[in-house]
Amino acid sequence: MTESVRAPEKGANVWGQAIAAVAMVTALGGGLWAYGQTSESSGPPPATCSDETPGKPTGRVTGAQLCEALLRPDLAELLGTPAEDAKTASGSDGSVGLSGGKDIPMPSAEVEFDTYTVTLSATYDDLPVAGSESLLRDAEKRTVLGRPAVLYSDRTIRIAFRLDGGDADSGPGVPLRSLMVAKDAKDGGGSFDVTLWRADGMVPDDAVLLRLAEKVLPTVPGWTAGS
């Protein structure tokens, strides 16, 4: 018997893959900041982001704050699936270590529905968004909310864990679409990423992704219009 999970495939967008990997490990370890409680009479209620006690201020957005921004009341409607409720919602304050001992903070959040899974992440590096399209698959330069952005494709990895303790198995997953938006209008380094994939394996609609990003990103703590 196996249990399968999905994570973005390792490719040119190294930072994006690292965020997803951190979020997946957090979920598998039971460190979710949100959960749904089951009810025998009415079924599970919609997922909620928990009231985590904030840590020491860092001047950066946290995974819990990203979860709150993403899990908005109209999220299912923005995704075009208004009858669905969120099944899970989680946040993670992950980071990626680079050679030389430097860590790149990469907080992220993920919300799963029956049809879609959507993630929101922030990358605190010194890399501009402009020019990254040459490193990404099916990439298109865009301007979103007055900031440089790149719309691109990737694919999840299917990871099957054996419940009998045997070796895990992995293989190609489903296609995803992701939007990388500069943290400021001057593109001085760092980005927000909104990523979308479908449970049925169909390619997500770019119009849905763009509509979602334009509604969610301005609500992220620290976002300043026109800056």
Automatic annotation (TrEMBL):
Location of region: Disordered: 37-59, 82-104
UniProt keyword annotations, A-Z: Membrane, Transmembrane, Transmembrane helix
Transmembrane region(s): 12-35
Family matches, as Pfam families: DUF6215
InterPro entries in the record: DUF6215
Protein name per the record: Uncharacterized protein
Protein species of origin: Streptomyces chartreusis
